[in-house]
Structure formats: structure tokens, C-alpha cells
Amino acid sequence: MSAGSPGLRIGQGWDVHRIVAGRRLILGGVTVPCEFGLEGHSDADVLAHAITDAILGAIAAGDIGMHFPDTDPKWKGAGSLQFLRHAVDLAGAAGYSIANVDATVILERPKLKDFRLPIRESLATTMGIRLDQVSVKFKTAERVGPVGEGFSAESQAVVLLANS
Ligand code: C5P
Ligand code: MG
Questions:
Q1: Which of 28, 104, 120, 160 is most buried as measured by Cβ atoms within 10 A of its Cβ?
Q2: Does residue 72 or residue 123 have the better pLDDT?
């Protein structure tokens, strides 16, 4: 980014995907054993999408659909970690590195806490940062609304970038 740009930039991201049978449940690049998965043009990794949007937001570089349109056959079934890596590379080109990421996945079931470490490791490796810079939290929606009734999964993410 231009000289005199602020030393810190914050970004926020959110995503939702429908739950469907016959697809894999992929969160932060990790496949979680489950009888359902998430619908989407790509691999529908709702967590990776939210973090990608948070990074793009921090550098005011639009959103994930602008960079990877879901109408483009090139991205059909694509692994979403490449979207995340691209956002990190854009941030790097703008002069920023990731200070930390804090994300939440909201999914009624299955229980995800046993997958926290592999998911954090996968995200940290993809983003080229340390494990202690990546936090992933899990919440149910208390059986209320589309997430709570098992129709969808959501994710939210906040990222802080610092001048590198
Ligand atoms: O949503 P709730 O506050 O009841 O979640 C309690 C805890 O259950 C969370 O803090 C999280 O550790 C865990 N959890 C989980 N997998 C989910 C939802 C929640 O492991 N799908
Ligand atoms: Mg998405």
C-alpha cells in the first residue's frame, strides 16, 4: 500500500453454505467425517471463505467472489485454501503480514472441537504464520434458525494485518 498507509488494518469476513447430503464437510482444509457436507461451487469451505474475505477486506481488495467467481468453471470443486493463499499473497504485495486471525464456525453438529488443532495447523500452514496466530472457535446456534435447524453452516472471521 502507499507510503504513509496505516501500520495496522483490520478485516472482517462472514460466509454461509447450505448443508447437503453427498458432499464432504471441509473446514479450514480439513475433512471432518460426517454424513453430510456443504453445497457450493468450490469445495464450500465456509471457514476458509470467511477468513479469505476478512483478509481481502483488510486491504480493501473486494471480496472472494470478485477474485474467484462462482460462475467460472475453473473454480468448480476447487480447494478453497488456494483462495486463502491468494488473499495472503495480495496482502503481502500490499506490504502487510498477518498479525492474527480469530474465526468462529457456527454449525449445529457434528462436534468440531476435536478438529480444532488440525484445522488451526492447516490454516496456519496455508497462511504462512504460526499456530498461535490462528484461533478457531465453534458454536452451535442453539437449535434456532437455519443453522440451528441443520440447514446451513456459517463462519465469521476477523483478521489484523500489520505493516511487514
Ligand atoms: O454453542 P455452544 O455454546 O453450546 O457450544 C459449546 C461448545 O461446544 C463450544 O464452545 C465448542 O467448544 C463446542 N462445539 C463444538 N462443535 C460444534 C459446536 C460447538 O465442538 N459444532
Ligand atoms: Mg463460501
A1: 28
A2: 123
